[in-house]
Amino acid sequence: MKINFIKYTAILAITSLIMVGCSNNDNNEPTPIPVDFSGTFMQKDQMGRPAVNTVFVSASSKDEFNVTVPSEQNAKFQSMFETNLKALSPAFANPGDKNALGLDAAAFTGLLATDVLNVSLDGKTTFFDGTNVLTGRALADDVITVELLLIFGGEDFSENPTLSDDNVSANDKPFLTSFPYLASPW
Fold first, then answer.
1. Does the pLDDT value for residue 83 go beyond 70?
2. Does residue 19 lie in a domain region?
3. Domain tally for the chain?
4. Nearest residue to 31 via CA among 19, 23, 20
């Protein structure tokens, strides 16, 4: 008797799952889910260039930076960025020190303080490829190593070699050669 009850319960559960999973959609197209954009939204994090906000914005200024529009960021935060850069990097310890882009601390932090990802409309899109710098970002670009090199590497990337590489040289899995380009999960 107990076995029959288990069989009937299993059949009922399987039938219910099959019925719930069926639809009139013969094209296997996903059913659109309505999106509700009503309400109040607030930006929680500004991250145009990875790690810039994390490294250069002081903890007490995070909320203000995150809600400041990029066109106003340089005026409000460049001096904080410069102070934090000089405190952080021995490559900018002396007046006149520059990085591989030829930028001194003031010019470099002026570039970084406006935390947007620039995109070249008529050239190669890359974070850094040896020639092109900050013209966008390709999936395979080693963004953190480039940022470390520009912060710690000095004029020719040779200063502070132990601070100038995150030692992650590739993605865990190769990117795809066609859309959606991202590697599948493990």
1. yes
2. no
3. 1
4. 23
